[in-house]
Design goal:
The chain is α+β, with helices and mostly antiparallel strands. It has one helix spanning 3-30; strands spanning 39-43, 46-52, 64-68, 83-84, 86-87, 92-96, 104-108, 113-114, 117-118. The chain contains one helix and nine strands. The protein has a four-stranded antiparallel sheet, with no helix packed on it.
Length: 120
């Protein structure tokens, strides 16, 4: 192989390395570090990730909902509210979930509610 052909191959290799390195830097800077399995949505232009310890609407298990930003920082409620399932009176539960349009819903418990969960 002559010098010109070798220089062409080395140039192509260098271009590939530069482009792949740039892609790696770009993806590492923009990739979310949110918890695995978190539900994602965008609110007011910000990425929000949501985890529910009881995996959604499980009214028979008390759960806590946690919100994160794209860097895996927990988003605290400005009023200090903790999003934990709780009894709403004696026969209803306030169930938090990442899988609905609203973060919480009031649901009837046919056998009553105790300690943030419907009685079976």
């Amino acid at each position: 192989m002559n010098k010109k052909g070798l220089m062409g191959i080395l140039t192509i290799i260098l271009i590939v390395l530069v482009l792949s390195g740039g892609y790696f830097i770009y993806t590492s800077l923009t990739k979310s570090k949110a918890p695995e399995g978190a539900v994602h949505w965008v609110e007011e232009g910000k990425d929000i990730y949501c985890l529910d310890s009881d995996n959604g609407f499980d009214t028979y298990q008390k759960g806590t909902l946690t919100l994160y930003d794209k860097n895996n920082n927990e988003i605290k409620d400005p009023n200090g509210e903790v999003y934990t399932d709780s009894c709403f009176g004696e026969n209803q539960i306030r169930e938090y979930s990442c899988n609905s349009g609203d973060l919480d819903k009031i649901i009837d418990c046919s056998n009553g509610c105790t300690n943030g969960a419907c009685v079976r």
